Amino acid sequence: MTQKIVITLKPLLHRERPQIGIYFGFNNHVKDQVKAYQGVKWSKTHRIFYVEDSNINRAELFKYLNQFGYWVDYSAIKNTMLPKAQPIQTNKLDKVGMYKELPQTHQDKLKRYIDYLRGKRLSDSTIKSYGYFILRFLHYHKDVMVNSWTNEHIDLFMENVLAKEHYSISSHRQSVGAIKYFTELCGMAAFDASGFERPKKSKFLPVVLSKEEVIDILQATKNLKHRAVLALIYSSGLRIGELLNMELKDIDIDRSQVHIKNGKGRKDRTVVLSEVIKPLLYNYIQTYKPQRYFVEGAPGEPYTAGSVRQFLRKACDEAGIKKRVTPHTLRHSYATHMLENGVDLRFIQELLGHSKPETTMIYTHVAQKDLMKVQSPLDVTVDQITKSNKGEQKLLLSRNFK
């Protein structure tokens, strides 16, 4: 009977940061599999592989190594509290720091503003964004009495905060919306932003990946969970927030549908689930066994957008892609490839969940049965590559399922 290989996980302090040390006897096969895990690095000082100590890595690293049949001893980290990482010092105050520096009158006004936005039934993401800009405004004018604000204070904030800190046009537009609601709440004649205009939207074309680049990214993503996330974002044209909030029950594999609940604009919609992605999803779900959400950090808890951006950047580096790629780039690419594949623009607008279609499309009604006939661009791309291989083995995203 072959004895199982033992891999031991222990706490490690490296470069003044908490890490997880990965200890095992010399074995090239094990070494290659450990190196393939997202974020693993080699320490010349300690002569071991390690990865950042986090709740996500504690759970995922164990599952990842366990799937290969290794005996994973994680007793050294199982019952230890996660060390608190020291915050990186910057010149900018964080939100908590700014809030603590506000006088009580300003803190009360911010709380009232958040309640006001909730009463307007704005989305949580909008309230978060608007609340941040008003926090910045209040912090910038923390020495000014609440009843003394005028439109000149708005101008000073935009000139000395938004402009000098090089906020994007889209952020500037958001700040104007936030301040309009704020002055509406305050109800002072000299402090009225209703006449303020938002700067015009930028006309930059979105970054779009080629079909081959998408496949390169997916194949360069060694971690099964990460590959499933990126494949689902692209193949169904999801926003990052939609992916993170998606529950397992929202994916209907038998009917090849993905149900998106409470998307942007509080709209539900249904999109196509790629046929090619199904084996990958089966493999991922059986390996990681998520409890509620499609992708989870701690069991039963949603993942974070920052984590997705991080492993997407690493995948692009591995694939040699120099473009500035974000999760939304995959969504842009989905729409562009659909159009290139001959899908009607009306269908694409419906599948993307756009609230304002072009004027020429305003009266167009897209039947759900027609939408479900639309083929995912991932299926089309894999089919094209397979045909170009002239009978060679079909391209698979997952090694364990056909």
Give an overview in words:
The longest helix has 18 residues, at 169-186. It is built from 17 helices and eight strands. The protein has a five-stranded mixed beta sheet. Strands 6-7-8 form a three-stranded antiparallel beta sheet. It has helices spanning 28-35, 55-66, 75-78, 95-101, 104-119, 124-140, 151-163, 169-186, 211-220, 224-236, 240-245, 278-288, 305-319, 327-340, 345-352, 368-371, 377-388, and strands at 6-14, 17-23, 41-43, 48-52, 71-73, 251-252, 257-260, 269-272. Helix 10 (224-236) packs antiparallel against helix 12. It is of the alpha+beta class and 402 residues long. The chain has three domains: 6-78; 95-186, DNA polymerase, domain 1 (Orthogonal Bundle); 211-388, Orthogonal Bundle (hpI Integrase, Chain A). The two termini are 30 Å apart.
Secondary structure elements and their pairing?
Layout: E1 6-14, E2 17-23, H1 28-35, E3 41-43, E4 48-52, H2 55-66, E5 71-73, H3 75-78, H4 95-101, H5 104-119, H6 124-140, H7 151-163, H8 169-186, H9 211-220, H10 224-236, H11 240-245, E6 251-252, E7 257-260, E8 269-272, H12 278-288, H13 305-319, H14 327-340, H15 345-352, H16 368-371, H17 377-388
Parallel strand pairs: 1-5
Antiparallel strand pairs: 1-2, 2-4, 3-4, 6-7, 7-8
Helix pairs in contact: 4-6, 5-6, 6-8, 9-13, 10-12, 10-14
